[in-house]
Each structure stands twice: as C-alpha cells, then as structure tokens.
C-alpha cells in the first residue's frame, strides 16, 4: 500500500479503522517520533500515548540493527513508500516478552512530498509459539524416524511408505525394490499405478475400500506385477503412520509366490 493523500488520515473512514482495529496502528513523523497511536497499539505495548511520545518508533526495530542498517531502511522506505513485513521480539512495559510483526508505509501530502509514516504491529506470539512447538515435535518425530528407518531399510520384508492422498512413494526399502524389479532411487515420487505394480484397478480399489472402512488392511492375499510385467502374489498389509509430521501409509508385501504356485499345482492334479 502506498498512501499519497495525507487527507485520508483525517477522514471518518480512516478514523473508524484506526480506533477499532485489532492491530496496533501508529503515526510518526519522519524521524520516527510518535504522533498518534490507536488503543490496540497502546494495549499491545503497555504504554500510553504520553509514554510513547517520549520514545521513537525505532524502538520497535530489531536490536541488532546498527545505524547504517537503519539508514538504508529509512532511505528505502522513502524511495519505495512501504516496507516489507518483518518480525522481532518486543518487551512490553510490564516486562513481558512478545513477538510482533511490523509493516510501515509512507504518508505523502498533496504535492507528493513525504510528511510522515504510519505503521501496523501485530502480536504474533501465539503463532510463533505454535511454530516452535511444531518444530520441536518435528525434531522428535525425525529423531524417532531415523531410528525406525534403520529397521525399515534392513527389514527382510518388502516395505514402502506412501502419501495417503496421492499414493506417491516417500520411502522404499531394498527388498521392495527387488520385489518389483526396479532401482530404489527411481521409485521415490512415483505411484504404484504409474509403475504398473497394481494388478488391476479393481484390485487397487478393493484394497483402499477396506482401508477407508477399517483404517487398515492385514495380510490380504493379492496379485501384483513387477515393473517388467512379471506377476507375483503377496500378503498385503497397510497401516496409517506418522511420517515426518504427516500421516502416511506404511505397506508391507510379504512374498508368497512359491506357496501360490504349489497350491495351484496341487489343484491341477
């Protein structure tokens, strides 16, 4: 947003937004001294307008910014007319540390001359807290997955992990790659349908119908094809798991080709 009419700030429309906005709004002169702040700004910082007038809008900027960085920011703001949103930690009057996001705009008069700045600040403490919790949870899941991955990779049974929605393969072990006669590194990102591993669409839909109904499948005898077209039978099991912070499908295809052949041969006699 680039404000070019300073009369806007004296309009009833702006005053209504200014007074009722849930975000803090402040108007400063060109050197950053506070001229006016809305109730939300004062509530967020804990300071009255009288207190703020003794300070500068620069107090909201990152502490590690030196004078040269502030100068560059100030010059860019005058040139472009607005700033990109940035975040920082802010200490309220009561000593409480909060996370805020800040965005600043330039105010020009009718002759297009810069006259003041106005800016918004938003309390993003809850969002930052949620991001930190999610990051910590992800790291815990990642650590747990690294331990499980060693078991997954070395498991003697063919196993793969896929996205539930798209069916794209996320992880495969060596035994699964050997089972479908394909290079392991070339499988990631592909689907069983693309690879031609499902024996038929009917078989695939029947399996996923059971998963949608029961939440899992356990040791279902079913036919598959390798990527080279060879048919094989397997005991197919699948169960939703948490994978890297998301829900995915862990599947196992235990080979049973020899037993099926033997049963068919016995039927022929």
TrEMBL record:
InterPro entries according to UniProt: Biofilm_reg_signaling, PAC, PAS, PAS-assoc_C, PAS-like_dom_sf
Domain PAS residues, every copy: 10-52
Origin superkingdom: Bacteria
SUPFAM superfamilies cross-referenced by the UniProt entry: PYP-like sensor domain (PAS domain)
TM region(s), chain numbering: none
NCBIfam families: sensory_box
Name of protein: PAS domain S-box protein
Species whose genome carries this gene: Leptospira interrogans str. 2006001854
């Amino acid at each position: 947003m680039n404000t070019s009419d300073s009369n806007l700030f004296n309009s009833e429309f702006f005053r209504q937004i200014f007074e009722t906005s849930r975000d803090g709004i402040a108007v400063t002169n060109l050197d950053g001294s506070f001229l006016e702040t809305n109730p939300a700004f004062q509530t967020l910082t804990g300071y009255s307008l009288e207190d703020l007038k003794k300070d500068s809008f620069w107090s909201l900027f990152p502490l590690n910014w030196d004078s040269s960085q502030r100068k560059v920011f100030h010059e860019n703001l005058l040139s472009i007319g607005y700033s990109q949103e940035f975040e920082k930690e802010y200490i309220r009057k009561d000593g409480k540390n909060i996370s805020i996001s800040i965005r600043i705009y330039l105010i020009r008069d009718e002759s297009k001359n810069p006259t003041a700045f106005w800016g918004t600040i938003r309390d993003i403490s809850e969002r930052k807290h949620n991001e930190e919790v999610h990051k910590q949870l992800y790291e815990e899941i990642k650590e747990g997955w690294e331990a499980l991955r060693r078991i997954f990779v070395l498991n003697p049974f063919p196993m793969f992990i896929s996205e539930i929605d798209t069916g794209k393969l996320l992880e495969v072990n060596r035994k699964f790659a050997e089972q479908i006669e394909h290079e392991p590194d070339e499988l990631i990102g592909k689907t069983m349908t693309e690879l031609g591993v499902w024996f038929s669409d009917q078989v695939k839909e029947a399996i996923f119908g059971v998963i949608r109904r029961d939440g899992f499948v356990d040791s279902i005898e079913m036919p598959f094809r390798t990527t080279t077209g060879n048919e094989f039978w397997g005991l197919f099991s699948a169960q939703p798991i948490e994978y890297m912070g998301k829900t995915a499908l862990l599947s196992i295809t235990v080979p049973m080709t020899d037993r099926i052949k033997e049963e068919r041969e016995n039927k022929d006699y």
